[in-house]
Amino acid sequence: MTTQPSLEAVERKLAVPAADAQWDSYAPEFAALQASDLTAQDVPAWLERWSTLSARLQGSASKLSTHADLHTDDDAIQQRYQTFMAEVIPQAERANQALTEKLLAVPGYVPGPDFALNYRRFRDAAALFREANVDLGVTHNQQINRHSVITGNQKVRLGDEELTVPQAKQLTDSPDRQQREEAWRALQASNQAMAPELDAVMLDLIGTRRQLARNADEADFRAYRWKELDRVDYAPAQCLDFHAAVQGEVVPLLSDLVGDIARQLGLGSLRPWDYNRNNLLDPEGRESLRPFNTGAELEALAQQTFERLDADLAARFRQMRETGLLDLESRPGKMTHAYCNYFPTTNEPFVLMNVVGTAEDVRVLFHEVGHAFHGFYSGDAQPLVWNRWSPIEFVEIPSMAMEFLTLDHLSHALSADELARYRRKQLEGVIAFLPWAAQMDAFQHWLYAEAPQDVTVADLDAKWLELDRTFHPFVDWSGLDEGIRAKGWHYYHIFQVPFYYIEYAMCYLAAVALWRSARQDPAAALERYKAALRLGNTVSVPELYRAAGAEFRFDREYIRGLMGFLKEQLG
């Protein structure tokens, strides 16, 4: 029987030796690489040495970051991470830039097919590099970390209880409308209490991000971020077209869907506490599915599911369970988000979650473990650290596709009726997610390319309200303080990873396409999935999509076709 490692095992996995948290641990190796005589024939071996060093540095950064997220209330742990980011990372950025320039200057060097794409990325990144942005990047990271600390220590007071955010959100899914409303109001009261702090952080971030763009001679932060994210396969105009396509094709479908649910429940209108895009109300008023109670039970449920899906995937997940690569329980002082991090030296992914026992937790675990599989497979196949994972336009496909590929392997954990409900939630979730993704992306296009130089918090609130009325017109806010609604932009990605959100929509569309193929030939679809993951970061985004069995498209016609398929599946 597989046992769940203790929290102490997780702490051991995240341990970083004191020496590896200091620049002196890496400086000699960078210096040796810089001093090496380098001819075209020497490049492959030299790249391997650089990759090994980069993997060690990245691994230390990932472990310190994750450890800080597990202990947002521990000043010493926070300071250790911040010191690393302030003292080690800037030196590493300068050293990496010097090595990049050395590589690009090698006469006669022509990269092989497995490195050609990243060689081009190295060239583009070197052109974007500015010395002034190294120190400014430290400031930027410190501002981002302020958001992590503020939200990681957030508590929600409901009656006599003090809850974590995930625990409070769980209550907003209650079939009891009064309980939903009470939990929603308590959560919003907590959000409003810390809103001034987050507003201040955001204004600081906007100023810093605009300065990063100016330092790099870019017109605005969107243009800067486009290059930083290596978005070469599509332009901002296509994102704006996506927003319009979602407004035209998905918002009406979602409005009809939630309208039908409201009518079946006898609700006169859909109030904010009646709408959760991750878990639409059950039309029969049933309690939310609770397939497990503890993190250990969720791990066991997932293990059985992967055993039914694929032996190798099951073995990978078992490795994570047995070696301290999962931390699922919700605890005070723990960051409330869910994610998968990666330690490249050992080719190990790490999943952090905050589970409370819901079916949504099941979906999120499959999602994050899909990321973990991406790390495992690309790490196995690609020796160079830069060739692992993938461009961000593909990186959510392994995770979102896993949400779908596991759908037909849950009968051990759910009854036929429960499985039908879970499956329906998954399909509804795609429809409900797309308007949110379009709204998130549209807000950032406005903020970083159109908003006035003297943009205020009131401007941010007003723009969010405008967009929310466009993409979620079916939610009835009458009689409520729309100042609460206006703070919807207080969201993780807006603060932490600007412009990283439309990728979720692209990948959800592709995941639906993969699932459509899997309905016809499950084995072939799974093999394409694995093959695409092994390609890592060595081919372009459109090529990765084709390898997985999908199209790199998010235009109106394509969206209309996939929405039609989902409508059919929903009956």
UniProtKB/TrEMBL annotation:
Its cofactor is Zn(2+). Transmembrane segments: none annotated. Binds 1 zinc ion. The keyword tRNA-binding does not apply. GO terms for molecular function: metal ion binding; metalloendopeptidase activity. One of its GO terms (biological process) is proteolysis. Gene3D superfamilies: 1.10.1370.30. The keyword Zinc applies. Residues 171-561 form the Peptidase M3A/M3B catalytic domain. CDD domains: M3B_PepF. Keywords: Hydrolase, Metal-binding, Metalloprotease, Protease, Zinc. Pfam families: Peptidase_M3 (PF01432). Belongs to the peptidase M3 family. This is Oligoendopeptidase F. It comes from Deinococcus wulumuqiensis.
